[in-house]
Amino acid sequence: MTRSLEGRLAVITGAGGGIGVTMVRQFQDAGARVIACDVSAEALEALDADHNEVFDLGNPDECKRASERIQADVGLPDIVVSNAGYTRAETLDQVDDRAWNFELDVNLNGARNFTTPFLQPMKARGSGVFVFISSVNALAHFGNPAYAAAKAGLVAYARAIATECGSHGIRANAICPGSVRTHAWDHRIEKDPRILDKVSRLYPLGHMVTPTDVANAAVFLASPLSAGITGVALPVDGGLMAGNLPFIDAIR
């Protein structure tokens, strides 16, 4: 890959997770210095990031302090990737008040908590890129109602930043992955060892996407190669949103 992020400073949340670890590596391979963020120091131990930050995205004050530390110790980022995410409430009957509030806090409010402290400094500088890792659940319903609502909110939030801050040189886009094989699938596999084969048949490409697929899309949207792209929701989904393959097979 062309080192299109040479000299850029990127901040990545959820850096110790299945997609996050790959995200850190791909951004470094593209030439960026990376600040890895997660809720626990243990999650970051295996990474070789340029700087680590440990804080709770659900706490606005912690996010503000983390942003201040980053700017004081490393500098104002060129790129912020809001990658952290979580879901367990898979159907409406599993979504009680606690699940709803927790999943919105992790997947939507946390991204906003960490984005807000960087907006004014980036506007003053005249440049900045935000990449939000949303989901195909934001575009159509595949279960996980609270997660879906939060991820749809991320798409709307990215569009708001793109529209209102574009004149200050700031771009914002969302990536909408389909199913990605990470540890988040382990609890489903325990229930049904054949679930990955079942899910793969839903995708026109015949397989789920990988963390590398998602990370490569994030590198592209963060790089000068996408200088004219802002306010988009980009599916990285093996063709899932292009059409309903099982339906076509059923009517042949």
List the helices and strands and how they pair.
Elements: E1 9-12, H1 18-29, E2 33-38, E3 51-54, H2 60-73, E4 79-82, H3 97-125, E5 128-133, H4 145-165, E6 170-177, H5 186-191, H6 195-200, H7 211-222, E7 233-236, H8 245-251
Parallel strand pairs: 1-2, 1-4, 2-3, 4-5, 5-6, 6-7
Helix pairs in contact: 1-7, 2-3, 3-4
Largest sheet: 7 strands, parallel
Uncertain spans, ≥5 residues at pLDDT below 50?
A: none
How widely separated are the two ends? 41 Å
- For this structure, the quaternary state is single chain
SSE order: EHEEHEHEHEHHHEH
CATH architecture: 3-Layer(aba) Sandwich
**Global mean pLDDT:** 94
Helix share, percent = 40-55%
Cα gyration radius (Å): 18 Å
**Whole-number tally of structural domains:** 1
Number of strands: 7
